[in-house]
Amino acid sequence: MSVETVLGPVSGGDLGLTLMHEHLGVNIVAEYRNDGLLNDADLLAAELQRFVEVGGQTLVDVTPHELAVGGHVAPPGGSDLSTRPVANVELARELSRRTGLNIVLGTAHYRDPYLDHRTLAESSVDEVAAYLVRNLTEGFPGTDVRAGIIGEVGSDRWFISPAEERSFRAAARAHLQTGAPITTHAARWPVGMAQLALLREEGVDPGSVVIGHADTVPDTSYHRQVLGSGAFLQFDMIRGVTPWHMDRLVGWIVALVRDGYRDQLLLSQDVCLTSHLSAFGGGGYGYLPGPFREQCREGGLSAADFDAIMVDNPRRVLARE
User: Fold this and answer.
1) In order of start, what are the domains of the chain with their CATH numbers?
2) What pTM was estimated for this model as a whole?
3) Per-residue pLDDT reduced to its tens digit, 36-81
4) Closest by alpha carbon to 156, among 121, 129, 191, 128?
5) CA distance linking residue 209 with residue 110, whole number of Å
6) Are 70 and 87 a contacting pair, CB within 8 Å?
7) Measured in whole angstroms, how far is the alpha carbon of residue 221 from the centre of its chain?
8) What is the pLDDT of residues 111-155, one digit of tens each?
9) CA–CA separation, 177 vs 158, rounded Å?
10) Given the DSSP bridges, would you call strands 265-267 and 37-38 parallel, antiparallel or unpaired?
């Protein structure tokens, strides 16, 4: 089936090499005061062009409202979700036109401490879900741009807080109404299994869920638990931090492919700081399909396996195959 992008639907077969967890138009200066703002269209267009030059065709921007505006900002009219804007929609559309990339937007509420507790407390789970459904089926408020995925919806710690639980339940109900896949933030702790348990309680098939940030949890038994559930496992902070870390990550990927999990693996970079951009010394959006691809080849991952992970698996998620 087709996939919603900021410029309209495209065929799943036209997605090509895809980064499944990135950010455009993000404001996280509350946590990263010096470099937590990505909103320069010219800079981002130049960075994305490097991704295009190494074969990139699609980028999934999983920036929830709270990350786009720098925290929980109540919409006009208090907790009325129907009027809540999403600050990065027009930027993403401009960048897609300038670079030729397919850009898929996510819709969700993020995680503590970014969540607007008042809105989540005053709205029922079904009302929060209805907001996500509108973004997926009608368009973000004030635009005709539709989301193509639910996420990133997340947990800040090793447990799911009450506000996060309401957000997850809303994501689950939006999925059940639309079929849109869900992608999660599950960093530093093996909280992905608790996320899956909560989503399953709402009736979500794990095969429609991507558990993210698995490379921040150095526990291969956890990785295999997630995969054993039938969910997708995503290593999405691939930025070339240190040779040792990249070598270890390649080893994990090769071992999981060898053990039959290739079709459940996803890779991305989670570029969200200016220091991640190549202009500021980082790997940029082109690191994974460029230098990291070569590291994978040297580590024993075949070109066919790399393409399956970077092309086929994203298509299966986004096109709901």
Assistant:
1) 2-318 (3.20.20.140)
2) 0.95
3) 999 999 999 999 999 999 999 999 999 988 888 665 544 434 445 5
4) 191
5) 16
6) no
7) 23
8) 999 898 888 888 999 999 999 999 999 999 889 999 999 999 999
9) 29
10) unpaired
